[in-house]
TrEMBL record:
This is Oxygen sensor histidine kinase NreB. PROSITE patterns: HIS_KIN. Pfam families: HATPase_c, HisKA_3. Its EC number is 2.7.13.3. The chain crosses the membrane at residues 16-37, 43-64, 76-97, 117-135, 147-167. Member of the two-component regulatory system NreB/NreC involved in the control of dissimilatory nitrate/nitrite reduction in response to oxygen. NreB functions as a direct oxygen sensor histidine kinase which is autophosphorylated, in the absence of oxygen, probably at the conserved histidine residue, and transfers its phosphate group probably to a conserved aspartate residue of NreC. NreB/NreC activates the expression of the nitrate (narGHJI) and nitrite (nir) reductase operons, as well as the putative nitrate transporter gene narT. The keyword Iron applies. It is found in: Cytoplasm.
Length: 452
């Protein structure tokens, strides 16, 4: 919808065009009234004069008012202007008032409806008629009279040309401004559409990023936690089965005592496994809630990264069996919270893969603080795997499926996404029978630098 100032401007221009269209009739009427009022014409000649006035008005109305489309036809307009100039001449002969007032119509239509040099022909003819009427006839055949006559005609032609040119320039500038305003409106509409499109894309991208974040967090908390719980419950199930089998095979008193002692040990292990499963369930429930609220890992809230990794590896070794050696090198310093969270999650994922797939006896975890980088290395002496297909396909769902039904493919993808999102690199080296090495390098962005 147009703005109020532009709409007012359009209305004013429409009114001006209407007034310009009425000018010929006003000038014709004024010339007629002045002719009657001043008795410039004998009454006997008035009926013919009024008939010529009516004929002229009808001509103008037919050519410009009744058929406005004819203004785009040059030959029709040339005939109309020529006829109009003749009518001006006839009326000017009858009264000088027609030359003084209505003669202006000849200038107006000559410049407006004719093209090129024909404009000057029409204006010159009109000027010659009006000057002749003012002078009472053609000039005397003397140089001074002829020069004076030509001077007045030339002056009128020059004035009409100058003012008409100024009017055309003003109209062109007005049209250009109107086109500029229309282009600006179109640009604004396009920008509004583009802005709306960008908002939709931003919302879609945000939703996609949030889905990826939640997928990574669910994998690193719920999925790994459920795997740990299943592992503990499977161990408890084996302990209970061993105790039941021993009880069924006892025959002597001494044997019964040994079986009872073994059963008690198995029950103790069963209770420990169940207690570990319950604790893991509670811890991972808390981690899941923290993931939903986009909070960092709980271990990093109460301990530095090396201490949190030391506790994590020790707990993992207690629950899963293989011995883990953790080492931190270089000057320890607080890093950006996202960097520390990614490193912690990377260790969790790497150890989870070792527990599910590697069959390792020893695991080494090294955290190295360098000047510009912090590097995490996780190595194991397990069965390894084939990496010829590339880092993204080191574990396929068929080859990486454990007893718990979990797969390792998304875990490595999630780890790589986390690392590369922060400008880091992830390298995985492995061969069948030689173990696996996972190395993640991230920019060592300090908390103070990230805050700036």
């Amino acid at each position: 919808m147009e703005t109020t100032p532009q709409r007012d401007l359009d209305l004013r221009e429409e009114r001006v065009r209407s007034l310009v269209g009425a000018v010929p009739y006003v000038l014709l009427a004024a010339s007629t009234v002045l002719t009657l009022a001043t008795h410039d014409l004998p009454w006997a000649r008035m009926p013919v004069t009024l008939g010529l006035v009516a004929l002229t008005a009808a001509l103008i109305w037919t050519m410009t008012g009744l058929n406005p489309d004819w203004t785009a036809r040059p030959r029709v307009m040339a005939a109309f202007v020529a006829t109009l100039v003749v009518m001006i001449a006839v009326l000017s002969i009858r009264s000088v008032w027609f030359a003084g007032f209505f003669g202006f119509t000849g200038y107006l239509y000559s410049w407006q409806l004719l093209q090129g040099r024909w404009r000057f022909v029409g204006v010159t003819a009109t000027a010659a008629i009006t000057v002749t009427a003012y002078m009472g006839g053609l000039p005397a055949p003397t140089p001074s009279s002829v020069l004076l006559y030509l001077f007045f005609v030339a002056a009128l032609v020059a004035l009409v040309a100058v003012f008409s040119h100024l009017g055309e320039t003003t109209a062109e500038r007005s049209d250009e401004r109107r086109r500029m305003v229309e282009r600006l409106r179109e640009t604004i509409r396009e920008n509004d559409g583009l802005h709306a499109q960008l908002l939709v894309q931003a919302r879609e991208a945000g939703a996609h990023d949030e889905r990826e974040r939640m997928a990574r967090e669910i994998h690193d908390t719920l999925a790994q936690g459920l795997v740990g719980i299943i592992t503990q419950l499977q161990a408890a199930e084996r302990a209970a089965g061993t105790a039941t089998g021993a009880s069924a095979g006892s025959e002597t008193a001494d044997g019964a005592a040994d079986v009872a002692e073994a059963a008690e040990r198995n029950r103790a292990e069963w209770r420990l496994r169940v207690a570990d499963a319950i604790r893991l369930a509670r811890e991972n429930l808390a981690e899941a809630r923290r993931s939903v609220h986009a909070l960092g890992p709980a271990p990093l809230e109460t301990a530095r990264l090396p201490d949190a990794l030391a506790d994590l590896t020790a707990e993992w070794s207690r629950l899963n069996g293989p011995r883990v050696e953790f080492t931190a090198t270089g000057p320890v310093r607080p890093l950006n919270a996202e960097v520390e969270a990614v490193l912690l999650r990377a260790v969790q994922e790497a150890l989870a893969n070792v527990a599910r797939h590697a069959g390792a006896g020893r695991v080494g975890v090294t955290l190295s603080y360098m000047e510009d980088l912090v590097v995490l290395d996780v190595r194991d002496d397990g069965i390894g795997f084939e990496t010829a297909a590339g880092p993204e396909a080191v574990l396929s769902p068929a080859s990486a499926r454990g007893d718990d039904g979990a797969t390792g493919g998304f875990g490595l993808t999630s780890m790589r996404q986390r690392v590369t999102r922060l400008g880091g690199t992830l390298d995985i080296e492995s061969e069948p029978g030689t173990g696996t090495a996972v190395s993640a390098a991230l920019p060592a962005v300090s908390r103070e630098t990230a805050g700036e």
